[in-house]
Amino acid sequence: MLHSEAIDPAGVEWTRVDEKYISVKLITGILGWLVTFAVIGVPLVLSWTGVWMEFPLWLQILVITGALVWAVADIVLIPRRVRAIGYHERSDDLLIRKGLLWQQVVAVPYGRLQYVDIEAGPLMRKFGLCTVQLKTASAATDASIPGAVRSEGARLRDELSARGQARLAGL
Predict the structure, then answer these.
(1) Checking DSSP bridges between strand 104-109 and strand 15-16, what pairing results, if any?
(2) How many CB atoms neighbour CB 139 within 10 A?
(3) Which residues pair with residue 15 across a beta bridge?
(4) Domain 86-169: which CATH class?
(5) Short-list 110, 108, 26, 112, CA closest to 71
(6) What are the residues whose beta carbons fall under 8 Å from the beta carbon of 168, sequence distance 6 or more?
(7) What order of strands is seen across the sheet that includes strand 129-136?
(8) CA-CA distance, 130 to 126, in Å (whole number)?
(9) Radius of gyration of the chain (CA)
(10) Which of 20, 120, 153, 161 could disulfide-pair with 124, CB 3.0 to 4.6 Å?
């Protein structure tokens, strides 16, 4: 079993994203895999009907089986991936945690924040969720909290912006 304690800072209590985000990820994941299977299926159907070149049977089985195994694994892991997302507000920075196999903990110092953005597409709005994106001077900073409840997203935007302004004023 994988243990997350290896990279988590000591004494951190993670605030998890809302469980409704699992439904959002399941819907988008299933739709994405349906599109993928449609793209894979077109050449296979054209091959079976003789309209296009024939693919060897072993290749057809390999492609279909591989895609099915990958899709099932991807969909089954969504709840665990979502439950691995968390954040923690400390006095000088915000920690954001993501990942199961490739775990990542990002610390975003409040003094580096340029602005905090809230984003919500139609599906996220339907579930009352949003994504909080933290923008810093570094283009490499991947600082976002997907799946936050909209009221919590608004609170984070206001709180983090205020902390960022206070840190900038102190420079």
Answers:
(1) unpaired
(2) 7
(3) 87
(4) mainly beta
(5) 26
(6) 111
(7) 113-119, 129-136, 144-149
(8) 10
(9) 21
(10) 120
- Taking the C-alpha atoms of residue 140 and residue 109, their distance in angstroms, rounded to an integer, is 14
Asked whether 115 and 138 are in contact (CB, 8 A), the reply is no
DSSP string, 32-87: HHHHHHHHHHHHHHHHHTTSSPPPPHHHHHHHHHHHHHHHHHHHHTHHHHHHT-EE
Residue position matching structure tokens 């920690």: 95
Which pTM value belongs to this model? 0.85
Closest to 28 in 3D by CA, of 76, 75, 84, 73? 75
What are the residue ranges spanned by the domains of the chain? 20-80, 86-169
Q: Rounded CA gap, 7 and 97, in Å? A: 10
Report d(CA 106, CA 50) in Å as an integer: 53
